[in-house]
Specification:
There is one protein chain. 76% of the residues lie in helices and 1% in strands. The protein is built from 10 helices and 2 strands, in the order H-H-H-H-H-H-H-H-E-E-H-H. The chain starts with 9 loop residues before the first helix and ends with a helix. It has one domain. Strand 1 and strand 2 form a beta hairpin. The chain has 270 residues and is mainly α. Helix 4 packs across helix 6.
């Protein structure tokens, strides 16, 4: 069913803003870019608006990645102002995450909607368990060399591109496991989210280009009406999350992170 821009109801518009507000706080607080909230929420909104079912998940993931581009910039600025971003680490991961995000978008393009939704749900639960049972906050080993960092970045980028996230769900556990402090890991993850989201969103635009029955206002698998509402709200609320990240104790951050992922994962699978 083709949609026109005017077909988005006031309820849809408010939903986009609400989703963006929550996602922005999570981006600043947990370094996750909000994607694990944005994707399930957009699945629901797009289905309610009549988007063709075979396109729903891909449009949700692609749009999520596009909004994370905007969200991550606001979050990066807030974390950088506090001196928490480890820019040398970002530089060592960047090449891998760019390549991986492109690959992830190509893989997601070949998955049916229901399969893609279940992949997101399982991923959320696995990461939640890892964060709750992953051991000491200070980690177990040092950061790997250049080849290891490139490989880690590629895996983070590929998974992020498939499930529509900014990579924090992998980057934060990876960095804390490598003896990076939780607050620095969150801030550095937020910075890594920008290249992941930019490459992934571009990939979804390219793979979705010319697909029949896309709603008007879309470029490939990115819906710009949804992007606008979610991104604007996210930009405004990300600094609040960053403030909380530098205020709350580390155990609380880890429990909040895990609880959010459990709720999202169970909802997608149920």
């Amino acid at each position: 069913m083709d949609l026109i821009l005017s077909s988005w109801s006031l309820t849809d518009a408010l939903a986009f803003v609400g989703v963006g507000s929550v996602a922005g706080v999570l981006a600043g607080l947990l370094g996750v870019g909000g994607g694990l909230i944005i994707v399930p929420a957009l699945l629901w909104v797009f289905r309610g608006a009549g988007v063709a079912e075979p396109l729903v998940a891909h449009l949700a993931v692609g749009t999520s990645l596009a909004t994370i581009v905007a969200t991550s910039l606001s979050s990066i600025r807030a974390h950088h102002a506090r001196g928490a971003v480890l820019w040398p680490v970002v530089a060592r991961l960047a090449g891998g995450v760019l390549i991986g995000a492109w690959l992830g978008a190509a893989i997601a393009d070949r998955l049916p909607t229901l399969t893609l939704q279940r992949v997101v749900g399982v991923f959320a639960l696995v990461v939640a368990v890892q964060m709750l049972l992953g051991g000491r906050a200070e980690g177990h080993r040092a950061l790997p060399g250049s080849l290891g960092m490139a490989a880690a970045g590629s895996v983070i980028g590929a998974v992020s591109g498939i499930v529509g996230i900014g990579g924090g769900s992998l980057t934060v556990p990876f960095l804390t496991w490598c003896r990076v402090g939780m607050r620095e890991a969150v801030a550095t993850s937020a910075a890594c989210g920008f290249p992941i989201a930019a490459a992934g969103a571009t990939g979804f635009i390219v793979t979705g280009w010319g697909t029949p029955d896309l709603p008007a206002g879309s470029t490939g698998f990115v819906s710009w009406p949804a992007f606008t509402g979610v991104a604007l709200a996210s930009i405004l609320t990300a600094p609040l999350g960053a403030h909380l990240a530098h205020t709350l104790p580390v155990p609380v951050l880890k429990r909040v992170f895990a609880a959010v992922l459990v709720l999202v994962g169970v909802r997608l699978l149920a």
